[in-house]
Amino acid sequence: MTSRSSEPRFICDRMAGSLCKFLRLLGYDTLNANDLPLGNLKEDTTLLRNAEKENRILLTRDAELSRRDQNLVRYLSGERLDDQIRQLVRTGLVKPDLRLTRCSVCNNQLVPVSATTLSKYLNENPDIFPGSSSDDEKITWCRHCKKAYWEGSHTRKMREQIHQICFLSDD
Ligand SMILES: [Zn+2]
Q1: How far is CA 107 from CA 13, 65, 110, in A?
Q2: Predicted TM-score (pTM) of this structure
Q3: Residue 21 is part of which domain span?
């Protein structure tokens, strides 16, 4: 747990919402500018201030914003998610390990949940369906949004994808 303090934390601007979700799945503490109220004309300044206050790196596609503070901001040179992931991994900012320790929706830490608790919750809340799960897997969930996470074919596929993006394709 102590190692986490040295780990980078991020804020993604509104143009990097997909990257935000992805970084959370990798386990990085990442805030999303899309969670801020709309209509703030000085949102860039707010983002810079929050990044400084909370010791976060601001990730943006906005070249002008990135020039305002080169210590706090990283300019994302690619438009595609793949390119952005590759950039962060190749510059050593992010490790390409899918850790599943954090909720991709709200950034909260995931906690273990027993299959019994989970199925009880699903019975009481039939409108929420987090997908199917096998009961012998270790299941974690987000207490806040009740989204469940577990290892399976979907995570295997994602790891292959990450490997492909970071180590195999070269464009
Ligand atoms: Zn959540």
Answers
A1: 15, 24, 9
A2: 0.88
A3: 8-90
